């Protein structure tokens, strides 16, 4: 599905945006027709394509052209790049903690279970735009070699945590996000170079694997303005 999504984003299907037939796509991508059919169904749910009875499947160009659309599960790194800026990170730290009731509830574990914590101030063209905290379920991922010392080697840069997990064989299939208003505490204000009590956007998200097991829970404090987030909403018709 990643290849098909990338082809759609790059405008590979021409000015009218019509996708080839399922057999043709199956041959082009080297996958089975059921796989193509499932991928198109997911992309339709995301608002990237629409099926028109008797005509075929077409790209929703008005949606595809939007950067940072919330119904597509991308991380802060990709959000910054899609805004045409260079992603970076400051004051990146990794630690472990005993999960409190809130974190444990999000990750489906018992309170007191050890989790990895990654905190980074994210920058776009060296300007702070977000502070992110990722709480990683170590007990579930240890079989893939995801140990605190490996997180330590990863956390120094601006690389995507999703890409890192994928590199060790852990696929994030979907996420459930909640968008909340927030104000900058003294700690957040210092990290993001803002005045205390400045308005922020808080994105809380739990990410899951294909079996529906939670993998990580994230808190992302976004500075309004530098990163605009869009949401696709299917109409009543």
TrEMBL record:
Keyword Ribosomal protein: no
Swiss-Prot/TrEMBL keywords: DNA-binding, Transcription, Transcription regulation
HTH gntR-type domain ranges (all copies): 1-62
GO BP of this protein: negative regulation of DNA-templated transcription
Cited PROSITE patterns: HTH_GNTR
Protein name, as recorded: Putative HTH-type transcriptional regulator YmfC
One MF annotation (Gene Ontology) recorded for this entry: DNA-binding transcription factor activity
Pfam families associated with the record: GntR (PF00392), UTRA (PF07702)
Natural source organism: Planosporangium flavigriseum
Domain of life: Bacteria
């Amino acid at each position: 599905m990643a290849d098909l999504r990338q082809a759609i984003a790059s405008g590979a299907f021409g000015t009218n945006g019509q996708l080839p037939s399922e057999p043709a796509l199956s041959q082009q991508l080297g996958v089975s027709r059921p796989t193509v059919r499932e991928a198109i169904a997911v992309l339709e749910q995301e608002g990237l394509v629409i099926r028109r009875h008797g005509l075929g499947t077409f790209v929703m160009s008005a949606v595809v052209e939007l950067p940072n659309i919330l119904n597509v599960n991308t991380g802060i790194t990709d959000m910054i790049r899609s805004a045409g800026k260079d992603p970076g990170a400051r004051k990146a730290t990794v630690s472990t903690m005993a999960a409190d009731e809130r974190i444990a509830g999000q990750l489906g574990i018992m309170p007191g279970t050890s989790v990895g914590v990654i905190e980074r101030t994210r920058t776009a063209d060296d300007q702070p735009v977000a502070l992110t905290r990722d709480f990683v379920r170590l007990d579930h991922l240890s079989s893939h070699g995801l140990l605190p010392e490996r997180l330590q080697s990863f956390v120094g840069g601006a690389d995507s945590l999703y890409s890192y997990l994928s590199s060790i064989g852990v696929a994030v299939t979907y996420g459930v996000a909640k968008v909340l208003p927030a104000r900058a505490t003294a700690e957040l204000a210092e990290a993001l170079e803002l005045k205390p009590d400045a308005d922020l956007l808080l994105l809380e998200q739990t990410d899951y694997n294909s079996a529906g097991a939670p993998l990580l829970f994230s808190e992302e404090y976004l500075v309004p303005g530098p990163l605009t987030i869009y949401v696709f909403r299917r109409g009543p018709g």
